[in-house]
Each structure stands twice: as C-alpha cells, then as structure tokens.
Amino acid sequence: MFLQCLILFLLFLVLRLCAYADTITPTQPLRDGDVLVSKGASFALGFFSPEKTVVWVLNRDHPINDTSGVLSIDAGGNLVLYRRDSRLWSTNFSASSVKDMVAQLLDTGNLVLVQNDGKRVVWLGFDYPTDTMLPYMKLGLDRRTGLNRFLTSWKSPDDPGTGEYSCKMEVG
C-alpha cells in the first residue's frame, strides 16, 4: 500500500513539474491526443469524450468520432478545426500577419486568439458559451458588436450538441 501511494505521489509530482504548452501557433497545432494546459494548470483543452468534465465545446454540433482532429492556425490567421482535410469550424477572423497569431488557453478557461505582436485579443471563446457559466464570462447582448451571448443545454449527457434549453438575457 505504501509503495502504491509513493508511486501515485511521484507521478503527481512529475506531472506538476512537466511543462505543458498553453498555446497553439501556426507551426504548432493541437492534434487529437495533445492537450493544452493553462499556465496555472487550472484548465486543459483537448479532444474529449463526453465522460470527462467539459465546460466549453468548440464544435458541439459537428463531433469528430475518430482521432483525425487538428486545431490549428491557418494561413489567414484563423483558429481552425479540421477533421482529416475537412474544415469543421473557424473563428472567421482575418489577420494581416499570420506568424504573429497565437491561440492561448488562459487560467480563466478562456481560449483566446491573440495577435502576438501587440498582444491584441481578436477572438474570445467566452463570447461563444455552451452550457456552463465560468467566472469572467458575460451573458447578454454586446450593443457595440451585436453579439448575443447565452447558454444552451447539451442534447443529452453524452451528446454536447445544441440542446432544447437556453438561458438568455432579455433586453428591455
């Protein structure tokens, strides 16, 4: 028993000391099996199975049912999700310089696309919530951009697709 506890402790210690990447760059995509971990190790991002605790889903209505998924930054500076050669999802942002684009997982759980030269955030995952509200997330209408942020349930406990129930802020 003592040996098992010691091994678990050492494994925990090694994992805490390992340096995990918290960014995706044009030359370093995230492939199925890879994991991004925020600097403080508060959040992890990767391809998942629904039995894990999930607070945000990028492609909730277009699941990848094999290991061909790749999340990368394309030639236009967009964060793009591919399955094999098919483009499933994109941030739909256009950048002047792709080499300066970085997607970073923050300790708040927010995945952001940053123009690295000026540290200017050009896209936020928190602007597109799924079914979980996290600290620093906003709900409601952004009158400047017209973006309406709201929560929507999963179809079922095993299917993160868009469900029947929503939580929206009403503008009076």
- Named CATH architecture: Orthogonal Prism
Which class best fits the helix and strand makeup? mainly beta
- CATH fold-level assignment: Agglutinin, subunit A
Helix share bin: under 10%
Quaternary arrangement of the chains shown? single chain
Discrete helix count: 1
Number of domain modules: 1
Note the overall shape.
Answer: globular
Number of strands: 14
What string gives the helices and strands in order?
HEEEEEEEEEEEEEE
Lateral strand order in the biggest sheet? 1-8-9-10
Question: What fraction of residues sit in β-strands?
Answer: 25-35%
CATH level-4 homologous superfamily:
Bulb-type lectin domain
Q: What does the main sheet amount to?
A: 4 strands, antiparallel
Q: Using only CA atoms, what is the Rg?
A: 18 Å
Mean pLDDT: 84
